[in-house]
Each structure stands twice: as C-alpha cells, then as structure tokens.
C-alpha cells in the first residue's frame, strides 16, 4: 500500500495521524501539491491511497476509515455520522476559515465562521459526557476531527478557546503522541503559514457551499426573478425617502482641469489598457477596455468621487515600423494617423476620457528612463546574452509577435512568439517549434545579442506581500486573481526589458546603445507619462498610494503585465508609486461564435460601427449587456436586434415614453399631485431595492449585472401602469382622476430616476430624457448617493418639455444586411477545408449528421428565431391592449406556424418540446 | 430531495415498516428518529443504516477495500455533486467517465449503495445535457443507463435518454 501526501495540506494531517494511530504498515511518499496521483481525476487530489488492488482512494475520510478497518476497528454508526458531518458541514466552514486566516490575514473573522460547527461539537461532547466523540475510546471520528481542527485550534491567535468540552477533547487528542507527530510532519512546525502554498492552490470558497442545494446552472443575469416580497417597513422607508426631495447642496460645477487628488475625497484613477496604435480596435477591444472603464468613471462621478480617467495609444514597437513600411510613411506619421483614428472612434462611442494621450512623447522617455535608472541603481537588473530570431530575408530581428509556431507547452499550432493564445503561457520566441516569420513565412535563424533583464525572482517576495494585500483589500475579478496566482505558482523568471529595434524609447545605458525598451516594460509607463502630459503635477496621482486608488481595466490576456510585471518595475524603482488596487479583467467577446479577425474581415471594427446607422448609445447598451463578465460571451446581430426591440424599445423606452405622454396628454404637461397609497409605496420600495442592487453591483464593477436592474425597474413600471390603467381612470370621477394623477406622477419620477441610472451606460439617451422631462440638474447628484435614494425630483406642478420616442426598431432585413456585410469570408475559408483551429467544438460532426437527415438550416433558424420573437411581441401587445379575440387568435396561429417552421429549421421534431417549448 | 431518495431506497430494500424522517437546518439535512437511541443525522449515515437494517450488508461492499470505495463515492456524492456549479459539472462528468472506463459499477463488479446515490446525484446534472454532450461521456452514460434500468432503483426520478444509436430515431428526444 502506498500513501501519497503533500506538505502543508491539512487533509494529509488526517491520514498520517490515522496511519500512526492504527499502526497499519504503509509506504508514505511526499509529492508536490500539483501532482496528479489519481489517474482519473483531472484536478490534483491529495492525500491518495493506492490499494493493493490497484484502485485509488482519494477521500481522506475514506482512507482513514479504511486504515482503521484493516487494523480491526470497525466504525460505528455514530462514527459514520461524525465523518459525514465533518465532510459536509465542518469542511466548507474550515476552508473558508483557513482562506481568511492564511491568505487574507483576517484571523479575527475566523471565530465567526467556525462558531456554528464548534458550538455543535461542544453541545454534543457535553451532552454525551464521554471523553471521546463516540464513547470511551478513540475512534476514527476523533482522529479525523482532531486533525481537521488542529491547524485552527492550535493557533492561539484565532481565539477559539472558549469551549470547555471541545478544549478538553482537543487536549486529549493532543497528548496522543501520534497525532502531534503527524502535525509536525505536515506543517513543519510552522503553524498556519505552513499551509499557505497549499491554500493558494485551492479555489476560493463559496459561502453557499453546502449539502442539499440544487446545482446552480442558471445564469443569474438572465433568469427572471420571482416577485420579491416587500415588508411594511420597507414601504414606509421608501415613502419617507421619496418625500425628502432633491439635495439642496450646490450642483457639481463643471470639470476644472487639472483634476488633482483632494483631501477628504475618494480619489480614483481609472486607466484602460492602452490600445496598440496600428490596429483599428474591434468591439471586443472596446468592451474590454475603454467602454468598461468609461461606464465606471461616469458612475464614479455620479457618486461624487474625484475621478481621473486616463488612456492613450501605445505606439512603439516593430508592428508600427512594419506598418510604416507597408504604407510608405514614417513610424511617426503612422502613429499620428492611427492615433487620430482611435481618437475618433472613442469619441463616437462617447468615451469620456479626462485625457487621451500617447506613448511617443518626451515625458515617456523622461519617466521610463528615470524608472530604468532607479531599478538599475537598486540592483534589480541583470545582463545576459540572448538568442534571438532573425529573419535573413527581411533583414531584421523578429519581434515576438512576428514569429508564429507550435507552442512548446501545449502544441497549439498558432502560438505567438511571446504568448500562447490557447494555454496562456508565456513563451520565449526561440522555444517555439517550427518558427516562421509572420511577414515572409521563412524560417528565421537564431542570433545572439546582449540584453538587460528585470530580476523578477529578486522582487518576488516583495511582490507577493503587495499582492496579498491588494487582492484581499481591493476588487480583483476572479480571472485576474486566478491568472496572477498561476503565474506566481509557476515561479518568476528574469524578464528581458530591452530589444534590438529602433522605434522605441532608447535605453539610456551606454553599454546598450542602439537598443530600445521592450514594449511591455515601456507601455505601462505610458499611464504615468500620459498623466504627465495632462498635468505637471502628475506625481500627486502616481506617487501617492495613500490618497489614490487605482483601477486598471483590461481584457484577461493583459492581466500578468499589470499584476506582476509592471508592479515589479515600480516596486524595484522604489519611489512610492501608486500601485493597482483594483484589477478588472474581462473574458473574451466572440463574434457570432467565432473570433474577431481583421485579416479574414470577420467582425465589426470600431470605425465601421457608426456606418451601420445604429446609434452609439444602442451599441454601448448591447456591448455592455453582453459584456464578457465572468465568462466568454458573443456578439450576435440577431441578438442585438432582439435586445434592442425587446428591452430598449418595448421595455425601457416604452415605459419612459408612456410616463411622459400621460403627463403631456392628460395633465397639460404639468406633473399632477400625488397621493401615495399602499400600492404606490410598494412600487417605491421595489424600485428602491433595484436601485440599491445597482449601486452595490457597480461599486464592485459588475457592470453587466447592474444593467439588469435598470431594466427591472422599467419592467416594474410597465406592470404598474398596465395594472392601474391611468388612461381609463382619467375619464372617471374625481377619485379616479386623482388616482390617474398619482400613477402618472410616480411613473414620470421613475423615468427621471432611470435617466440617471442610465447615464453611465447610455449618456445621450440619458440626457435626452432629462431634456424631455425638463428635469432639474440636481437630480443627477442626488439619487446615487449613499446606498441609493429614490426621491421625488419632479414635484407636482413641474412643467415637462416635449416628449418623443427614444429608440427605434431594428428590422430583420436591416440586420440581415449588416450581418452579411460584416460576416467576412469565414464560410468560404471553412468550406475550402483549411485546417480547423483547435477550438472547434467537438459536437460539430453529430450536428452535421442531424442536419443531413432532417434538413436543418441554421441560417434560416436564426431568421425564424427573430421572427418568432417579433410575432410573440405582437401577440403580447394585442393581449395587453385587450384586442378582439378573433384578431388575437389569428396572430397566435401565425406565431405557432412560425414556431413549427423554426423547429424544422433547427432540425427538431415539430411537436413542441414538452417543457421548454412552453416558456418561449 | 434527500427524503425522496431515502424513501426510494426503502422501497428498493423492501423495508416493511416505513420510517419517519424530519429535516434540520436551512440545508434540510435528513434526520431519522429512532426508538432505541439518539436520532441519526445525514443522508449517507441514514442510508447505510437502512441497508444494515434490511440485512443487505453486501450493498456496502464485500471487502474492506470495496467498503472504502463505496464510502468514498457516497461522500463524493454529498460533498462534490450536491451544490456543484456549472463549471464543476463538466469536470465531474469527465472524471467519472474516465473512472468508469473499465468498471461496470462504482465499486467494481458489484452493484452497491454507491451506484444508487451517485445515480440520484448525477441525475440533475445529466437531464439538462444535449445528446451531443452526453455522447462525450459514453462510459458514464452507459453506467447511468444501466443503473436507471436496474429494477427498483429509479423510483422518484424520470428516466433520461442517455445513449443514442442509429436504432433510435429523433422522436425519442
């Protein structure tokens, strides 16, 4: 029998203790945490016991029980019960406790987390009045629980020692020599810190982890929420807030430049990853960086925070040199040209930078060279001879991105010279198998050259200390933490910061003349130099970590440079730099389930968006609606039309327009008097709750999730109008007319609130609504304060302006035309039989088979999906208007027919699917 | 859910007197009150108790090794399957598929309690999969189909079509 264990793993403590107590002979082997011992498990699982039959046991409790049984001690039912309790109740709490204590330095919160399970043990021990859990003698349950609790109970700083019976039981365990020697082996006498490297490799605990919960498969952002129960207190509180009216405090003045950190304010600097200048950004770039950062900085301004939003184009590097050669211009001319293109695109998307600069400036040279000399002075640079790829045909050293080949780690055939898109690992260009010059497809040769390296291993300890603090106190997205953790786990290596190029920031060191800084050393310094070009007092932002919070926005491929490489440069320079506090990384946005590709002409690029005739605000809305937050998502034309028509037009726009029209038509454009009844107060409470959720989510930069709460509010509003029918009541007696007035007044105030909440997402429409309602400017500052205050900002008698529709329908043929235009030649290339990329989904073959048999037509299916959605909407409208029965029946028949056609086109049998079909 | 699983097990074991259960806590952990001793708490604990009650100890394994394997999968069921996220689902199915490559049942060549409860736990994960997805996990699907067709196991759960071959037409889905 062979037992595999790893140091610092608390579960291994259990089995080693069980080996000692049971006295079973067994060969113990120490392995790495990441070692996959059990052949059928994809995640490493330790401890593991290899049984004589060749089977593996991978559960520590099952191993302990087995060891006891082999030594002749069967476990009782009570014993089983303790083991089950340990696995299902104690372990989730322990995992959370260890996470807090070992990784986040929040030992003080441990006692709260463990309170429940420890009290349960205390009760059982004191009630049973026996020395051990199951009676007078030690059982496997005692050993398992003792070992599980040893790390926390033996650490006096966690202050868990108030339970008399648990303490007595634990000390009884502690006198057992065998248990303690196991603890010594696993934790090496280091206590909790001995488990750090193990804990870093564990997924972060979820507080909901417990037994008997249903698997959570639904996407929370899309599932419809049931009616929330509203308590009487909530309703009264909402009515009270409502009556408070607008802030009397002075309206925020226009922005005064330069914006500098202010005492007593939350000073936030927002950066978005610098787009590379020689490419026109595609929608994925826009949502990942500038648009997300824009929403957050607009939101921050509404919250009254002192915001500085900085971005610019990253302009140095071979790619620029190349592009210049292609277009017959100088690199500077190329940068000027493309900087203007970028600038125009972001202007069209209404990205409200405080300053949009560029990296090819004197300040960049000045600051980059200063940082370089500081790092040099502090001894964090090392020299080395490097082998580099040189293309003899093109007569130059090849930058990493100009080499492609087979990834040495995962064998992905299209790995780039610096990083593999498939496995995400960094690559040294010379390690690529079958390298090719990307320009001429020749095989490059290896040459040597002397270079400078940033000594990352020497900075690792400092970095880790800073990372612990930043990731535990700031908001880092899960992918950012995970990518960073995996980088730290692989260990840091020295990183080359110089390159044999001309178009770059010159290295000031005399031994390295003719060389420039490697773009990833240079580019993040662009954040500093761009700020310096904005204001001479840039150091008030960048050398002021105590007053300033820094948010970095990017797509996930950029994470390591912002969380590891750049912080190391700044830490090494030792000049009290502001380091990132919150790292917000998106996943990838695909285009109609394929990748955006400039070369294949697939996808929508920033400069083309405006040619579609679809307003910038609608683009912003849809991109934010499908923001790849937490998982990859896809841009789809059909979906964009659907969301525009169903959410913007029929939900949000419809509500705001109706509210305004009622005031205009029924009350001569003056907001009527409002007498709040229970029902109105309930609505105020519901809306207030959605507003609170919105604020909580946006405070944590959950941009996509927060958007959903805006749409929920207008849904509540539509229901409210539909239920109260002000257009009927206005024709009734005095009480009824008054009721119509209240409903209209509340609705138009909700519209005003919505305009404020929409501001970060759709700035133009937001302003249009306030213009139409003639809303006071102070409502913008009032509603998003604190946890959210929904006040009556348009009081009785307020005169509104001219109301008109906010959104337009996107027609099927319009969308189809756009889809064709931007679809590229991907269908052609696929049928030509080019090698499929490794990411082609596996079920492709069966799908084709089904199509062949039943005649599925995905193209037709998409059209029909859209048609079904529209027809459904039509039916719903008719029903809502209480149209004639015959008319409704006719439209319903059409709808059913469309659904049947759709089912056929999707290759399903036309009979409606039993459950899911009904909901649609 | 847990209570329905236990009542299915009682029927399968042919227990004459049906037990009374309650649940405790917001996690609805099953509790079995008994006349001669303290109550038993927890799905696995109670299930093992019922098997002993019915004098069918072989369902818990017929050797120390197989008993350990059975207990391991029962624990896996209540710790890993229950409350797993969508991402976990894929890993779980992939791992089980690999594990079942050379096995008829969870604990080798004999039907045990581990099969019953892993089946109950896998069921909610598998109903939502498309046929294509199920086909990625052939070994797991073969085991699942085998267990759901074993007499008396399925009870409270609807049957799931897991394997498709050319004999079946699309009407079955």
Automatic annotation (TrEMBL), chain A:
InterPro entries attached to this UniProt entry: aa-tRNA-synth_I_CS, Anticodon_Met, Glutathione-S-Trfase_C-like, Glutathione-S-Trfase_C_sf, Glutathione_S-Trfase_N, MARS_N, Met-tRNA_ligase_1, Met-tRNA_synth
GO biological process terms held by the UniProt record: methionyl-tRNA aminoacylation
Cell compartments where the protein resides: Cytoplasm
Region (Disordered): 194-228
Cellular compartments per GO CC: aminoacyl-tRNA synthetase multienzyme complex; cytosol
Bias kind Polar residues: ranges: 199-217
Domain GST C-terminal: 72-206
Coiled coil spans: 861-898
This protein's UniProt keywords: Aminoacyl-tRNA synthetase, ATP-binding, Coiled coil, Cytoplasm, Ligase, Nucleotide-binding, Protein biosynthesis, RNA-binding
Domain GST N-terminal: 1-75
GO molecular-function terms, A-Z: ATP binding; methionine-tRNA ligase activity; RNA binding
Catalytic activity entry: tRNA(Met) + L-methionine + ATP = L-methionyl-tRNA(Met) + AMP + diphosphate
Domain of life: Eukaryota
SMART domains per UniProt: WHEP-TRS
Keyword Cytoplasm attributed: yes
Record domain WHEP-TRS: where: 860-916
EC number of this enzyme: 6.1.1.10
Family as reported in the entry's similarity comment: Belongs to the class-I aminoacyl-tRNA synthetase family.
Protein name, per record: Methionine--tRNA ligase, cytoplasmic
Automatic annotation (TrEMBL), chain B:
Domain of life: Eukaryota
Biological processes per GO annotation: positive regulation of DNA damage response, signal transduction by p53 class mediator
One Pfam family recorded for the sequence: Arc1p_N_like
Coiled coil: none
InterPro entries assigned: AIMP3/p18_C, Arc1-like_N, EEF1E1, Glutathione-S-Trfase_C-like, Glutathione-S-Trfase_C_sf
GO cellular component, one term: cytoplasm
Annotated ranges, domain GST C-terminal: 37-171
Gene3D superfamilies (alphabetical): 1.20.1050.10, 3.40.30.90
Entry-linked PROSITE patterns: GST_CTER (PS50405)
PANTHER family (UniProt xref): EUKARYOTIC TRANSLATION ELONGATION FACTOR 1 EPSILON-1
Protein name according to UniProt: GST C-terminal domain-containing protein
Organism: Eleginops maclovinus
Record lineage: Eukaryota, Metazoa, Chordata, Craniata, Vertebrata
